[in-house]
Amino acid sequence: MKRPKVRFACFTAACLFFLVTAHAAESLPAMGADLGNMTISGFSSGAFMAVQFHVVHSARVRGAGILAGGPYYCAMGSALKALTSCMSPNFLAFLPKPDELRAEADKQAKANHIDPPEGLRSSRVWLFSGGRDTIVKSAVVDAVHMFYLQWLPESAIVHESLPDAGHAMIVPSAGGICEVTGPPYINHCGDFDAPGHLLAHLLGELRPRAQAANGELLAFDQSKFAARNAGMGDIAYVYIPAACRAGGCGIHVVFHGCRQNVATVGETWVRQSGYNEWAETNRLIVLYPQTSSVTNTNGCWDWWGYTGPAYHIRTAPQIVAVWKMLERLAEKP
Predict the structure, then answer these.
(1) With the C-alpha atoms ordered 160, 87, 106, 226, is the resulting torsion angle positive or negative?
(2) Are 160 and 138 in contact (CB under 8 A)?
(3) Do the beta carbons of residue 218 and residue 240 sit within 8 Å?
(4) Residue 63, H or E segment
(5) Residue 20, C-beta contacts closer than 8 angstroms, at least 6 positions apart
(6) Of 247, 254, 325, which Cα lies nearest the Cα of 283?
(7) Which end of the chain is more exposed for a tag (fewer CB within 10 A), N or C?
């Protein structure tokens, strides 16, 4: 992960695709979705973001899936700490201790900036780390485990790992080789299905995944929800199974990783990350919010403070934007 830089030009095919799609984006529809049945997950910077969102809105989030990410407030507002202690810790760059991070959560809750962390006690958490992940080391995911154990029983947390996996989302249908670390960060490791594993733990027994995602993948105008300083793109995506048009479906929010937003890889992440096929058969709407590649060149979510020091509380621009999208999905059609 690199320091934020400003980029003024757009020359890649994915970026040109993004500009054309942004022009044609529709409005996010009201779906009568069930906010009481809302879960989240994320990969890499999206995993850090998923933890932040979970802690901030612990009273509403039913569970979180964390793939190659770290604990709440790990970077403590420092880009340097994000790049060292929270990704590749060593004897000179230590991971924060769980009680330090709990103290921050308690402090923000006391100020009414986040939900009381006790809300985490009713959650379920699924964690994943790859043995060949050189970007976010396994010790960082271990730290997430320890962070959640301050509220959750061990039985509520599943921590899976694959010794040969690189830094990637793991999906059976993916083309990337298991140990590779590189765009679009979607790999194949035998029959391991990360979205299926995490959704089963967060939601309970699932119906078998669909062979094809035949619902609607809608590109919508995200600018209506995000402030100009949020570091988010003009468009985002939502997957809507036909069965959810009548209302009452749950929602799963998926936070992509760095260099996985639509401006970088087009629709690769929203089509190939493996969630839509499970959503199709399990009455689940999947929301894919998108970062900008202008505010942060790599399109990372803000888990160290590039949008400002309040990046990890309820008023954080990115957290506000995603919450507004969820409220829109919950409105009656």
Answers:
(1) negative
(2) no
(3) yes
(4) strand 61-67
(5) none
(6) 247
(7) C
222-260 residue pLDDT tens: 999 999 999 999 999 999 999 999 999 999 999 999 999
User: Among 107, 101, 90, 195, which Cα is nearest to 148's?
Assistant: 101
SS3 letters across 281-300: HCCEEEEECCECCCCCCCCC
Residue with tokens 């990410």: 69
Burial of 269 (0-12, 13-18, 19+ CB in 10 A): buried
Show the tokens assigned to 228: 């100009």
DSSP code, position 307: T
Assigned token pair, 25 = 């984006």
| The two three-digit tokens of residue 318, written as one number | 């990115």
Torsion of CA 18, 184, 319, 88, to 10 degrees: -140
Taking the C-alpha atoms of residue 242 and residue 245, their distance in angstroms, rounded to an integer, is 6
Q: Compute the distance between CA of residue 82 and CA of residue 79 in angstroms, rounded to an integer.
A: 5
User: Which tens digit of pLDDT belongs to each residue from 136-189?
Assistant: 999 999 999 999 999 999 999 999 999 999 999 999 999 899 999 999 999 999
| Percent of the residues in the chain that have a pLDDT greater than 90, as a whole number | 90
SS3 of the chain: helix, strand, coil, percent, to 5: 35, 20, 50
